[in-house]
Structure formats: C-alpha cells, structure tokens
Amino acid sequence: MKTTKSFLKMKRDGEKISMVTAYDYPSAVICEKAGMDLILVGDSLGMVVLGYESTIPVTLEDMIHHTKAVKRGAADTFIVTDMPFMTYHGSIDVTLNNARRMMQESGASAVKLEGGKQVISTIETLTNAGVPVMGHLGLTPQMVGVMGGYSVQAKEEEEANRLLEECLLLEKSGAFAIVLECVPQQLAEIASKKLTIPVIGIGAGKHTDGQVLVYHDMIGYGFHHIPKFVKSYGNVKDMLVAGLQKYKEDVQQMKFPEEEHSFNMKTETIDRLYGGVKS
Ligand SMILES: Nc1nc(=O)c2c([nH]1)NC[C@@H]1CN(c3ccc(C(=O)N[C@@H](CCC(=O)O)C(=O)O)cc3)CN21
Ligand SMILES: CC(C)C(=O)C(=O)O
Ligand SMILES: [Mg+2]
Question: How far apart are CA 172 and CA 186, in angstroms?
C-alpha cells in the first residue's frame, strides 16, 4: 500500500497522482482495480449517494459507515476520509475524539478537513497525535451557507495571495497534501510549485501534482448539477435505465426467466404433485 511518503516521492518525480471518490463496496473495488493512487471517501457522499442538497447534513456516523464499506472493497489502497461539517471546530478534545473514531473505526489511512488559518492548530495537533491530515482550500463546500453558493475562488490578487499563504501554513502545520478546489489554473500552478507537499486539484487546471474527481460525476452516474470541471468517462446512468427497461419488457413478454435461469424437479415427483392437486 502507498503511504504519505509515496505521494511526496511521486511529486518529486513528476509522476501525477490520481484520486477519485468512492462511497461503498462496489465503487471501492472498481477504484482499486483501476489502480487509483488514493481513494477519497468524500462528504460529497451526502449529495451523491444520500440525496441531500449539500454536504452539511453528513454526520460522523455516515462517514464511518461508508468508509468501512470502502475499506472492505479496497483493502490495499490509501483511503482518505472527510471529517464532516463542524466535527473539527469545537474543543480540541472533541476534535481529537472525532478524528480518533474516523481512524480507528473506519479503517481510513488519513483524514481530510477544509479550511485555512482557522484549522492550522488543529492540523498540527492531529499530525502530532499520528493522524495524517490532508488539507482542502479554495472552494470549501462545507462553507456553502456562508459563501452563498459554489463559485470559483481566489480570482483576484488579494484573495489569491491569502490562499497561497494558507497553502504554506497548511504545509508548515504538517498536512501531507492539499486539495485545491475550483480556483484559476494559474494560481493552482503557483501553489503546486511553491509547496513541497502534493497539491491535488479539482477544477484547478492541469498543473497541479494530481487530480481528484467525484466517481459518479465522471462515469455518468450523478443526479445533481455536474460541475464544469468534470470530464465524462462513461454513461452508466443511461446503461442502467436501458437495462432495467429491457428487463421490464422481458418480464411482460415472458422472455425472462428462461430455462437457464430456472430449476427443475424429477418428472415422477411432478406427476405425483399433479396427482395430489387433482385428488
Ligand atoms: N457531485 C458532486 N461533485 C462535486 O465535485 C462536488 C459535490 N458533488 N459536492 C461537494 C462539492 C461541491 N462542488 C461543487 C458544486 C458545484 C459547483 C458549480 O456549480 N460550479 C459552477 C461554476 C461556478 C462559477 O463559475 O463560479 C459550474 O458551473 O460548474 C462547483 C463545485 C464540488 N463537490
Ligand atoms: C470534491 C472532493 C475534493 C471532496 O471533498 C468530496 O468529494 O467531498
Ligand atoms: Mg468533501
């Protein structure tokens, strides 16, 4: 299995890092088969597989439940799991206990948390306690209420400078990598050059050290708005609908089940059963 060190080495060697989300056993099996460098159990699972409007309702229990399933499907892949909304903003004791549960109960190799300055000391404490932490800057979906929606971040100089500063602070506080979401590609390129730790982009252009996408978005299995930064690598939804429609047609026309899907009993037994019915 890869480690936090492997990702540093990949960056140093100029080998791009591929990460994708998984939320359950089958998606995890697929991710591992396809050789993903890391799997992210994103709190986007709230929107993608639980049908919420945002990531805000996702709980620690939800994350642990789904991460356990992902671990069973991808035992040999480095798994990062999102600390959900407001589970790392209270007292440090509560934060530590939440991170402990994520690590011990879910089987994750690391946790990810959103934010800059406000989470620096948290990242330091967690790292010192032995929890590998991935940072997340730029568009931070858990702030959707405060931001008033999802939009590209740090387009202007002042905010761009603040973001670069926060990237460096995260690195200094011990984060082993940073997700940079929905920022101009030029800014993501500068951040990737300035940092020693890998920058994994989503909607951040090609010059980051790696990419991450939401599994359902990229395979055409998503039912919310698909962000502009997603590239489509399949159309699972259409395949599923077509398959189920054909099944319904087959049932109606008695084309399913066929002989090969059915079980038989001995003729004499059948005869006796008919006898039993008649008498
Ligand atoms: N299915 C899914 N995919 C994701 O990538 C994702 C989630 N869910 N949930 C959590 C966050 C939220 N994310 C989002 C959600 C919407 C946009 C979005 O609508 N962006 C606009 C561009 C906005 C602008 O131009 O400022 C777009 O049109 O893509 C972006 C990121 C990324 N994450
Ligand atoms: C979009 C990625 C980076 C994420 O945090 C998630 O899927 O929850
Ligand atoms: Mg997330």
Answer: 23
